[in-house]
Amino acid sequence: MSTLEIKDLHVSVTDDEKGEGQEILKGVNLSMSTGEVHAIMGPNGTGKSTLSQAIMGNSAYKVTQGDVLLDGKSILDLPVDERARLGLFLAMQYPAEIPGVTNVEFMRAAINARRDEDKQIPVMEFIKKLEAKQKILDMTDEMSERYLNEGFSGGEKKRNEILQLLMIEPKFAILDEIDSGLDIDALKVVSRGVNSMRGDNFGSLIITHYQRLLNYIVPDQVHVMMDGRIVKSGGPDLAKKLEDEGYAGLRDDLHLDVKLTDEI
Amino acid sequence: MRANLIDKYKDEVTSFSESKNEPDWYKQVRLDSLAKADELSLPKYEKINYRSWRLDRPGVINADSEIKNDNKPQADNYIYQAGNQTLSSSLDEELSDKGVILTDIFSAMNDYPELMKKYFMTKVTKAEDNKLTALNAAFLNSGIFLYVPRGVHINKSIQAMFVQDNSVDCDFVHHVLIVAEADSEVTYLENLVSTGSGYKNKANIVVEVIAADDSRVHFSALDQLSKDTTTYLSRRGCTGNNTRLDWAIGFMNDGDVIGDFGTDLLGEGSHTEAKVVAITTGDQVQGIDTKVTNYGQHTIGHILQHGVILQKSTLTFNGVGHIVKGARGSDAQQESRVLMLSRKARGDANPILLIDENDVTAGHAASVGRVNEDQMYYLMSRGIDEKTAQRLVIRGFLSSVISEIPEKDVRASLTQMIERKLINGQQ
Ligand SMILES: Nc1ncnc2c1ncn2[C@@H]1O[C@H](COP(=O)(O)OP(=O)(O)OP(=O)(O)O)[C@@H](O)[C@H]1O
Ligand SMILES: [Mg+2]
């Protein structure tokens, strides 16, 4: 079993225009183990993506206080690629496009990066695995032969993130709005992909705005984030409650002084 | 004062010409060009200074090289030359029956004197253009002639392999003449490589492409001359009416090289796409000047140059788009971008637009920048280390030319060349 612990995490970003640091995360605490699925919900702009980027090690996000531990060891001093090789994966809200590099080539490079020089994945083994994973996601070879995300539709990009997840098989996957922009059929397919990973050696942190996704990928815990903090945690019912009552209701219940984007 | 080139080299050039059993007319071209070389000056390119390379000082032109490595192109239609010799060549019978010619330049002078007199350094590049083109005509010691008659469409690519030899003391003075007659079509691909070591040599290479009315010519090149070879490399073409002439050039040399590329869009409605990718490493200098001139009405000239600079090297891209008066309805666009991977590297991307006609469209984009951080982050977030990620991003940046290369195995070898050069440059 592996663990991922986030302790009192404070994160700032530097605003390009103003040139000064702005605190986005204001003390996030969260612990999870492999075998578990956690969901994070919360209003726009509260820091959900910031949390995922800070865990992964995006240099635009500065950790000013607190720690992130993988299996008890701090990973904050490690560069992005080392964190990935230790078992972290982030399906991004906005994946980059890389022309000239095919999906297949990229996935093979990613898998081989985790293996010794003399133990690279044999071509046949790779192809078999790829075919099996594509099948789960209703994907064709045609897409895998294309350049990485280049010209992919929004939904295709999301599906491609999940294909990478299934190929790389990390310990912990953070899925940032993997459901946004997906039609209802694609949502089922992508959920099927994530569910196929579930087991004792895999944990996932799912960021979403819609309770609907959680009908397909049923979480063990749901956390609500507002203004840079986790303000409430609970079971799957919490997501349903939010869907019915909205964030304003929860905020008022908790007597929080937080302004929501859509309020005038 | 230095002796005139003509006085100093007249005898050598004459005896070389005789040793090759050249016809008298070409011997005369050599001597006339030699005399002209004395009067002419080196070509000038914006922001590229190469005077100290001494490309205008001829060296040995006749030496027997023993090439051992077999680099024969894997193609049905090819020609394979090393040093001064043609090692082998092959052309489908069906094509030779239709009058297609693929032969070494010396045979061409004897066997097809009328075609050679008509096209050799008369339409595109002329001996009197500058000192280096004059020296090319005077000291020529290898090359080929490819001729595609009117109405002939060749659907398989024609490949050439040229090996320049540094195991002997000998300049590589090379000329490629390609003529595509009206309504013909050809895809040509050349490899330029160095072999051997021991000597530092100069190369003077002139490629001419004459693409007549309604013809389609696709020209690709993979250049990998060694660090011991200092080179002037000119590749220029001209078009007839409604011609399409495209260039895809992978400039992966390790030595100092001047590239002088481009097209004269003479015919009405003709179109050229000139794409160049380059990588520089070590302390080498590469300067590339790609010039498209719109003479005909409704002509389209697009230039795209992408380059990567590592270590202490220098890479300069000039993109010159010139629309002459009267070329109404023409379009000149260009994009030159360089990525600098080291603080000690030097790079430049100079867009030059010369527009002498009102009723036209023209535009340019140029940049000198660094590797895209979002792309790097994305790749590294999948566990790929920084250097590998950098190479993948760069390959993407250079893909505009890679994807233009018509043959899958040649595309793969360009990708390998890029990989090799980047790995060397990352150390
Ligand atoms: N790189 C950045 N530079 C400047 N500000 C940023 C940056 N990333 C995030 N922010 C700011 O931090 C705040 C939180 O953003 P974040 O993307 O984490 O929100 P989110 O909870 O993921 O929202 P959404 O639900 O809309 O995706 C926002 O105000 C945002 O503008
Ligand atoms: Mg977000």
SSE topology sketch:
The complex is a heterodimer of chains A (264) and B (427).
Chain A: E1 3-14, E2 21-33, E3 37-41, H1 48-56, E4 61-70, E5 73-74, H2 80-86, E6 88-91, E7 98-102, H3 103-112, H4 123-136, H5 141-145, E8 147-148, H6 154-168, E9 172-176, H7 184-197, E10 203-207, H8 211-216, E11 221-226, E12 229-234, H9 236-253
Parallel strand pairs in A: 3-10, 3-11, 6-9, 9-10
Antiparallel strand pairs in A: 1-2, 1-4, 4-5, 7-8, 11-12
Helix pairs in contact in A: 6-7
Chain B: H1 5-19, H2 24-39, E1 77-82, E2 85-90, H3 93-97, E3 101-104, H4 105-111, H5 113-119, H6 131-139, E4 142-148, E5 158-165, E6 172-180, E7 185-195, E8 201-211, E9 216-224, E10 229-239, E11 244-251, E12 257-265, E13 271-280, E14 285-294, E15 300-309, E16 314-323, E17 331-340, E18 346-355, E19 361-369, H7 373-380, H8 386-397, H9 399-402, H10 408-426
Helix pairs in contact in B: 1-2, 2-6, 7-8
Bound molecules: adenosine-5'-triphosphate and magnesium ion (MG).
InterPro entries (chain B): Fe-S_cluster_assembly_SufBD, SUF_FeS_clus_asmbl_SufBD_core, SUF_FeS_clus_asmbl_SufBD_sf, SUF_FeS_clus_asmbl_SufD, SufBD_N
Family (chain B): Belongs to the iron-sulfur cluster assembly SufBD family.
Organism (chain B): Companilactobacillus tucceti DSM 20183
Give descriptors for this structure:
heterodimer, A: 264 residues, alpha/beta, Rossmann fold, six-stranded mixed beta sheet, four-stranded antiparallel beta sheet, 9 helices, 28% strand, B: 427 residues, ten-stranded mixed beta sheet, nine-stranded mixed beta sheet, 10 helices, 19 strands, 39% strand, binds adenosine-5'-triphosphate, binds magnesium ion, SUF_FeS_clus_asmbl_SufBD_core (chain B), Iron sulfur ABC transporter (chain B), SUF_FeS_clus_asmbl_SufD (chain B)
